[in-house]
Amino acid sequence: DSDGLQYLFKNCSKDELFWLFNVMIKNVESTIGVATNVILSWLGPEAVDRWNAARDLSEVAAPSASAESPLGANFRPMLLARLPKEGWWEVLKENSGEEFFVETKYDGEHVLLHKIARDQYKWYTRNGKDFTKDYGGSSSLTDLVSGRIHSFFRSSVNDCILDCELMLWDKKLKKLCRRQFKSQNSENRSHSFRHIDPSDHVQLGEIEILEGLKLCRAKSKNKNVFFLVH
């Protein structure tokens, strides 16, 4: 609380405050020039895997039985990796064979959607940020994304985790657009996935399952939400 912070500010030395601020803004790795995985490895051979599974230091130090279930946990998703410029074909051939499918990489907000006990939701980004408050933690919040997509799940689905790409749709230009490129949308400005005004041309919008891509679409009166399910 504010009283506790004031006490620290008044009683800590300059060096102590320096590290306190770096811990608060999660900037320790950059400050000391050591990668997160290296720091975690000092805690033990399984520390990195435990961190990726829960993103919780208490689980790294003393994993609980609940850590075995990923449902609702803020774990690190599988991420794409760039192929080397030289020898890329050999890498593909070794892992995929002579014939393979290529999927379009949509550039949106990589999120993990947790559907829990049918009506509850959790939203985490690939970097572990909890955006449940912005996208909705319950199906009853019909003005937020969770409430808008809830009816599109089968009634038999109580729990699931979707690895998705949240996209923006320009209603005027009738196309997907990238939030940081002003020139690619009809409003000529950048957009935030978490702060979309209903009057904007650019919206979060429809979930549709396209053949081969599994692009989910949920449609509401004036908003659209796109998820690419990996």
TrEMBL record:
Q: Which InterPro entries match?
A: DNA_ligase_ATP-dep_cent (IPR012310), DNA_ligase_N_sf (IPR036599), LIG4 (IPR029710)
The UniProt keywords, alphabetically, are: ATP-binding, Ligase, Nucleotide-binding
| Family annotation (Pfam families) | DNA_ligase_A_M
What positions does the domain ATP-dependent DNA ligase family profile occupy?
Answer: 80-196
Q: Does the keyword Nucleotide-binding apply?
A: yes
Which terms in the GO cellular component ontology are assigned? DNA ligase IV complex; DNA-dependent protein kinase-DNA ligase 4 complex
* One GO biological process term: nucleotide-excision repair, DNA gap filling
**SUPFAM superfamilies for the chain:** DNA ligase/mRNA capping enzyme, catalytic domain
The protein's superkingdom reads Eukaryota
Q: Which GO terms describe its molecular function?
A: ATP binding; DNA binding; DNA ligase (ATP) activity
Span of the secretion signal? none
* Entry protein name: ATP-dependent DNA ligase family profile domain-containing protein
Q: What is the lineage of its organism?
A: Eukaryota, Metazoa, Ecdysozoa, Nematoda, Chromadorea
